[in-house]
Amino acid sequence: MANRDTASAARRSTRFAFLLLIAVMLALGGAGAYAAHRIYALANDRYVDRAAPIFASTQDLLVDMLDQETGVRGYVISGQASALQPYRLGRVGVRRDLAEIAASQSSGPNIPQHLAAARRAVARLERFYAHQIALVRSGPAGQRRAQDELLAGKAQFDRFRSVSFALETDAGNVVQEARHEQHSTFVTAVLFLAAVVLVGLLIAGALLVQIPARLHRLYRSEEEARRAAEEGAEASRALAHVTEAVVLLDEQETIRYWNPAAVELFGVGTGAAIGSPLVDVAPGAVDAVTALAPVQAELKGHDRWLAATETRFEGGRVVVIRDLTPDHELERMRSEFVATAAHELRTPLAAIYGAVRTIRRADHELPAETHEEFLTMIETESERLRYLVEQMLASAQLERQLVQLSLEECDLGELCRRIVETTAHRLPPSVTLEPSLPAEEITVAADPDRLRQAIENLLDNAVKYSPDGGRIVVDVRRRDGAGVVTVRDEGIGIPADEHARIFEKFYRLDPGMTRGVGGSGLGLYIIRELITQMGGEVEVQSVPGRGSTFTIALPLR
Amino acid sequence: MAGSARAWMGDDEGPDVESHLAPSVAPVPSNGTPQAAEQAPPRVLIVEDDVSMSFLCRFNLELEGFAVTTATTGAEGLSLAERDAYDLVLLDVMLPDLGGHELAARIGDTPVVFMSARGSADDLARGRAAGAIDYIVKPFDPVTLPERLRRNLDELGRSGPDGVWRLRHGSPPA
Q1: β-sheet bridge partners, residue A257
Q2: Shortest Cα distance from A416 to chain B (angstroms)?
Q3: Residues A425-451: pLDDT tens digits?
Q4: How, if at all, do strands A255-258 and B134-137 pair?
Q5: Measured between CB atoms, does B121 come within 8 Å of chain A?
Q6: Is B37's Cβ below 8 Å from some Cβ in A?
C-alpha cells in the first residue's frame, strides 16, 4: 500500500513540474513576442508617424524661409522683380510647413509652444520682407534704404533659426523619448525573459536532479510491489501444500484466505469460502477456532476431532485447523489395546492362580492324578501367557522394523503338514480339521519359523471362531506362480466393510469385547507384516455368518 | 463330564478320567456336608468358553455341594437355561457367539453373576445394567467362589438384587 502511494505521489509531482516547464516556455514565447511587437510599434509610431514629419517640416520651413530671404535679398540688391520668384514660392511653402507641424504638434510637450514662437518669428520676418519689398518699389532711395537695413534682417532671421532649431530639438526629443521607451521595454523584456528563463532553468534543473531519483524510487516501489506479490504467491503456494487447514479471518470472522487443505477438510471450495463468514461456510469449525482445544465436530456427515491454533495480528487472525481424528482413533485403539492386553493376560493368569489355589485347598486332599491335571493346566496356561507376551513383543518389534527375516527355501506342504499335526492335538473336540495337502513339493522363499507362526495364527483364529461342529479346511496348492495356503472356517465371518481393517494393528471387530472371543488384536497384524516382509500377500474373503477364508500367497522359488 | 479334570483340556479321553476322579474328590451330593445334605443342592449353570476357568469353577463348586452344569457357548447356555431351572447362572461376559450381556437379558428371572477379566468401573456398571447381581473380576480365588455364591443367594433372598450388589460393590450405579 505504502509503495503504491509513494509511486503515485512521485508520478503526480513529476507531471506538475513538466506542466510548469511548458507554462514557462509559453510565457517566454509570449513575452518575447510582446516585447518585439512593442519595440516595433514604438518605432513606427514615434519615428515615422510623429518625429519624422516634424523634423522634415521644420527643415522645409527653414529652407522656405531661406528661399524668401534669398528672393527678398536679390530683389533689394538688383531691383529686378523677377528676383522675387523664390520669395513667393517660400511664402507658399512656409504656410504648408507650419500646417504640417501643427498636425503633429501633440507629439511633444514643448512643440505647441515652439510652434507658436516659430509662427511669431515667421510673421515678424515676413513683415520685414514685405517692408523691404515696399521700400524697393518706392524707388532708388527706398532701394538704398532697404539695402542698408539688410543686416537688421539677419538678426530677425537668426531668431527664427533658433526657434526652428528648438522645433528640431523637439522632434529629436520625441525620437529620444521613443528610444528611451524602447530601451526600457527592451530591458523590461530582457529582465522578464531572464527571470522566466531562470525559473525554467530552475525547474529543468530540479527535474534533472529529481527525475532519476524519482525514477529510482518509482522503480524501487514497483520492485517492492512485485516482490511483495511474488512473496504472496510463494506463501500461497507453501500454504497450498500444508496438510492442515489454514484459514485467515478478519475481525468480523470473515474468511480472507482458505487453503486447499481447508477445501478438503470442510468440503467447501475457495471461491465459496472467501468473503463469507466462517460460521456460514464451516459451522463445524467455529467451536474449534473458539475453544482452541480439541473438539468434536460433524464434517461432511462424519464425526471428526478438530484442534485449532491461532496467531493473532492487527486486523484478524490466522487459524490452523488440524484433523485429529486419525490420532484420536489411534489413541483410542492404543488405550483399547491396553485394556485388551490386560484382559488377555489376566485370562490365563486367572486359570493359573485358580489352579494353584485349588491345589492348595486345605480342606480337600486331591488325588495324585487330579493334582497332575492341575499342574498341566498351570503349564498350558503359562505357555499361553508366554505366547501372548511374545505376540505383543513381536508386534512391537515389527512396528519398529526390528524383525530380521532369514529367507530360505521351504516346502510349503511339509510345513503345513507339521502345523496341522501339532494343532490337531490341541483342537477342541467340537471342531474338525480337514487338511488338503499336496503330494508334490511346493518350494517358496520364506522364513520357516515366521511362516509357521503366521499359519498357526490363522489356524488359531479359525479354531477360536469356529462354532460347535465347525470344520476347518487347510488347503495348500500351487496357483499363479505362487505357493498358496488357504485356511477356511465356518465361523461368524467378517462384514465386507471390515475386511481391510482387520489387518490393522489393535483393530477388533468388537471393540467393546462384550461378545466374541478374546484376542490381542495383534494376530492378523503380525501375519500380514510377516508375510509382506517375505514378499507375499494375505487376503480375506468372508460372508458374515458363513465363515471366513484367509489366503497366504508366497512367491515360488 | 462332571468332575472331570481333563474336561478343561477338551480331551476326548475325558470319560476315563472321570471314572476315577468323581467319587473321591466330588463327594456331592451323597457325601456332602450335613448342611448340604439336608437341603437340595443349589443349581448353578456356568457359561464360560475358557475351559480352564470353567473347570476350576465347577470343581470348586461341586466340592462345596453345588449342582453344576456347564456350557461353552452362549447358545448352549441359553438352551440349557430355557430347558432347566437354575438357582444362579455364572456367566462369562465374553462368549464366542452371544454376548454375556445379551444372554443375561434373555435368561430371564434367574439371577446372573458375571465373571470377566475386564474389571473397570464402566465394565461393572454395564454388568449391573445388564441385570447381574454380582460381578467377579478375574483372576479370583475359585476356592472362595462357592462361599461367595452361597452368600449371594442368601442376600438375594433377604434384600433382592440391589442388596447383593451393595454387599459386593457398594451402592449400585445409577
Answers
A1: A248
A2: 23
A3: 888 888 999 999 998 999 999 999 889
A4: unpaired
A5: no
A6: no
Q: Which residues pair with A552 in a beta bridge?
A: A485, A538
Closest CA to A124 of A95, A87, A153: A153
* A415 neighbors A448 (Cβ within 8 angstroms): yes
Q: Among positive and negative, which fits the CA dihedral A519, A520, A524, A526?
A: negative
Q: Which residue has cell 505504502?
A: A2
Residue B63 in contact with partner chain A when CB distance is under 8 A:
yes
Q: How far apart are the first and last CA of chain B?
A: 42
Beta strands in A364-513 (DSSP E): 408-411, 432-436, 443-446, 471-479, 482-488
Contacts of A344 in chain B (CB under 8 A): 117
Q: Identify the DSSP state of B85.
A: -
Residue A88: in which H helix or E strand, if any?
A: helix A85-103
Whether residue A240 contacts residue A259, with contact meaning beta carbons closer than 8 Å, is answered with: yes
Nine-digit cell string for B66: 453345588
Selected residues 459-498 of chain A with any CB under 8 Å from a CB in chain B: 464-465, 467-468, 492
Q: How far apart are CA A177 and CA A187, in angstroms?
A: 15
Residue numbers in A near B105 (CB within 8 A): none
- A359 within 8 A of A365, measured Cβ to Cβ: no
State the smallest CA–CA distance between residue B106 and chain A in angstroms: 14
* B148 at A interface, C-beta within 8 A: no
CB pairs under 8 A between A and B: 125
- Contact status of A555 with chain B (Cβ, < 8 Å): no
CA distance linking residue A262 with residue A319, whole number of Å? 11
3-state secondary structure of B68: strand
Question: Can you tell me the distance from the alpha carbon of B99 to that of B94, in angstroms, rounded to the nearest whole number?
Answer: 6
Instruction: Please give the full DSSP string across A534-546, using - where no structure is assigned.
Output: TT-EEEEEEETTT
Cα A545 off chain centre by: 64
CA A275, A280, A283 angle in degrees (round to 5)?
130
The residues, ordered by sequence, that sit 6+ positions from A556 with a Cβ below 8 Å of its Cβ are A442, A443, A444, A478, A481, A482, A483
Interface touch A380/B17, C-beta < 8 Å: no
Distance from CA of A543 to the nearest CA of B (A): 16
pTM: 0.52
ipTM higher than the 0.90 cut? no
Specify which of A69-73, A362-366, B23-27, B54-58 reaches the highest per-range mean pLDDT: B54-58
Coil, strand or helix: which one is A394?
helix
Cβ contact, residue pair B120, A339, below 8 Å: yes
Per residue in B6-39, pLDDT (tens digit) is: 444 444 333 333 333 333 344 444 444 444 445 7
One-letter identity of residue B139: P
CA distances from B145 to A355, B73, B148 (A): 13, 21, 5
d(CA B144, CA A505): 38
Q: Which residues are A144's β-sheet partners?
A: none
B74 touches chain A (CB under 8 A): yes
